[in-house]
Amino acid sequence: MKLYLALLACLPLPGASPAVRVKELAAVEGVRDNQLLGYGLVVGLNGTGDKRQTFFSAQTLTNLLERMGVQVNPMAILVRNTAAVMVTANLPPFAQSGTRIDVSVAAIGDASNLQGGLLVLTPLRAADGRVFAVAQGSVVTGGFVASGGAGNSMTVNHPTAGRVINGAIVERDAPSVMPDEELRLQLHHADFTTASRMAEAINQRFGAEVARCENAASLHLTVPRNFTGKTVQFLAAVEAVTLEADRRARIVINERTGTIALGKEVRIRPVAILHGNLSVEVQTSFNVSQPNPLAKGETTVVPEVNVGVREESARHVLLKDGATVEELAKALTAIGSTARDVIVVLQNLKAAGAIDADLEVI
Questions:
Q1: Which among 28, 100, 151, 234 is placed 20 to 30 Å from 190, CA to CA?
Q2: Coil, strand or helix at 258
Q3: What pTM did the predictor assign?
Q4: Domain 18-31+178-243 has CATH 1.25.40
Q5: Nearest in space to 48 (alpha carbons), one of 181, 178, 153
Q6: From CA 224, how far away is CA 241, in angstroms rounded?
Q7: What are the sequence ranges of the domains in the chain?
Q8: Pair 346, 259: CB distance under 8 Å
């Protein structure tokens, strides 16, 4: 197995962190997306829709035809060009009636492919049951299915899920509230240091006690007098304020893929690592025992088991005081460590107290 060291969080040291806008670190309380959900039909499929086992798609089609004046018995029809789907969407904040949004479509029956299908008029409801948008349009899938004779077929990605670009029209304004005098900022990641720095930077920008920390994840904002009636302009100025965000050092390990994400701010204390491999190999060979010519007897197979033990010499890694992640990666790569070896080393370093970082295994 090869060594995968994904330095995704290669950030400078805390003293030299790049300035980040408030816009990337926090959001205004109440200004948020709202999730919508609907149930509908995709028609126009090339025989890849739901089979008879999925009875609710036939029932839905029957109800749709009845509203158009066509009386059909759901047990007497067999339509394989339709598929029952779940339709989801995110209603953005301050969305006005008439705004178009994208929707996602996913089959819930035994349809094998939604490629080329058309989503029929589908109401999208919020958690309170109210309809906020209506979706309809052609489904674009991110995969396809190609098949030939003798049962040969190839499937790429997931053809049973797709999107309808600008397929929904907002029918009801999004329930977003914009206070006039008092606002709150919610940090995406709670941190006392970042919240304190953010309040200090905002107050320095406006020259008054505009921001006040309520906790590690929330700031209370008071609109200055010169911005009375100009809440949008005030928030635009707040979002443009920059500061040096703080963050906890973290090491993320994905044991399934052998991926390790580290950061530059992770320091290694003076420590010596001895790591070796012990491999045990068991081989079974079958020997044939055959009697002599004209002798009475039977040919038999005699299994022979050979057990071999091989232990590699321990590999030594010495890290100096204040060693960085790059130095750790280079040292482990130089001794030919695999991803599993690195995971074990990091877990032991954390247990020994040589790494001051959170170790997260996903």
A1: 234
A2: coil
A3: 0.66
A4: no
A5: 153
A6: 16
A7: 18-31+178-243, 34-170, 251-361
A8: no
